[in-house]
Amino acid sequence: MSQMRIKNEDDTAQSVKQKSHKVSNGEPQMKPLYDFIVHISKLFDDEMKIGDTIIKKDMRWDDFESRVPYGEIVAVPEKYETEANVGDTLVVHHHISQQPDKFRIGNDQYLVSYSPTDYQGQAYAAIDKDTGAVKMIGDWIFLKAVSQKQEENVTSSGIFLGHVTKEEKHEAEVYCEGAGTEELGIKKGDVVGYTKNSDYRIKLPNGDEVYRCKPNDLVYVKTS
User: Fold this and answer.
1) How distant is the alpha carbon of residue 77 from its chain centre?
2) Does the global pTM surpass 0.85?
3) CA–CA separation, 124 and 159 (whole Å)
4) β 160-166/123-127 pair status
5) Rounded Cα gap, residues 106 and 55, in angstroms
6) Could you name the CATH architecture of 139-224?
7) 3-state SS of the chain: helix, strand, coil percent to 5?
8) What is the DSSP string of 130-190?
9) Is 215 helix (H, G, I), strand (E, B) or coil?
10) Where are the domains of the chain?
11) Cβ-contact 65, 48 below 8 angstroms
């Protein structure tokens, strides 16, 4: 059911756009059945300050690292029970920023797909508007991102192509607990190993950087 819905994201977004074009008090009149609606006023952190000068970055070359991967929840899925509430901050997939026309439904509002277990779900966690606590959505797990080593990428002819990020080992601490950690019997602070390419990095509003992964992306937990 969720795969069919995800497969037709364009049609779903267009349908919601048509039904919710009238806005009252910042909320659409039609609530989404299976997805979130979030308000994101700025999709990219596209400014750098050098001294007193503010420089605009060209996002064509940095649309992943400089994305803003979160927004304020305007509406929650009517057909699902989650820990998220209207007014909380929703942490989302980078496609929302990179393909805004596909998910925008008007007034800086975007449709974010949700699934309790599927990888296609674009909603990862909600940050409580009052306490700042991170509440995982579905069975997603956040790991504390590890420091990265930058190496120069140079061709055989000596042309510099930028930097390549390398990590020494696929191991990190559990950042917070949720349904995914409960399923595995692990807790915040546990050191776990994760599979290659599971280190999808997200920068949270408080500046912390995390990896998001699923329970089957973890391969071991270290015990004392």
Assistant:
1) 17
2) no
3) 39
4) unpaired
5) 28
6) Roll (2.30)
7) 15, 35, 45
8) TT--EEE-TT-EEEEPPP-EEEEEE-TT--EEEEEEE-S-SEEEE-S--HHHHHHT--TT-
9) helix
10) 1-138, 139-224
11) no
The token pair that represents 150 in the structure block: 């930058």
Under DSSP, the state recorded for 99 is: S
Query: Considering only CA atoms, which of 197, 196, 186, 188 is closest in space to residue 220?
Result: 186
The amino acid present at 202, given as its one-letter code, is I
Residue 167 φ/ψ, nearest 5 degrees? -115, 140
Q: Two tokens at 65?
A: 């690292």
User: Tokens 């990428």 map to which residue?
Assistant: 153
Residues 204, 210 contacting (CB under 8 angstroms): yes
3-state SS assignment for residue 68: coil
Helix ranges, the chain (H): 2-7, 9-19, 95-98, 100-103, 179-184
pLDDT in tens, 135-172: 999 999 999 998 656 566 677 777 765 656 665 678 99
User: 75-79, 161-165, 214-218: which has the minimum mean pLDDT?
Assistant: 161-165
Q: What are phi and psi of 88, to 5 degrees?
A: -70, 165
